[in-house]
User: Fold this.
Amino acid sequence: MHQIQSFAGESRRSFLQWRIRLLKSEPKALSMGRFGFSLACIELRLMRLQSAFLKTKFMTTVQAGSFLTLHYRLAGPQGTLINTFEDKPATLSLGSGELSPGMEAALMGLEEGVRTIFELAPGVAFGDRNPDMQQWVARKLLAQLGAAQEHYVPGDVVQFPTPDGHGTYAGAVMQAADHGAVLFDFNHPLAGHPVTFEVHVIGIL
Assistant:
């Protein structure tokens, strides 16, 4: 709060210094007997400029570390993957890993209330596809991880627990072998693809 008050004070001092210079630039009008009228015109101009000045100074934009309330939609070549516009808005903190670095970079500088669409090139949003992220997993391990199913069909998405047990990550089934092992693709579904990133910034803190 102290920093906000200090910044507001500095902004007002800067504006008042400019105001004094403007008044000094009107000596002819002030000496012609139209003092009241001229002063009123100057004051009106000052009020309008002050409003624009302060609005620019205190404009809220997305910065590193901002806490955001927003709607967003992610779509790739196969269609929409995530869409919060049909439900409650998301709340997240930039820099916490909730959005990829490429998506965070796109948000920087956006003003509160803005709704826009970014077309992100392949690899920008979720990186390139990594062939090492395609791995065979034995049925026994699937059972130990609590991810065992009776049948696996290519395209199925299976949730796995993270090593610390506090989160999950997903793998898409690519192939199920006769001996029981299942080939999973642990790349993000949009990795290596162009991504449409639509966003509506509702609030910024």
About this structure: Strands lie at 67-76, 79-83, 90-93, 115-120, 134-137, 157-161, 168-176, 182-185, 195-204. The two ends are 13 Å apart (CA to CA). Confidence is low (pLDDT under 50) at residues 1-9, 28-32.
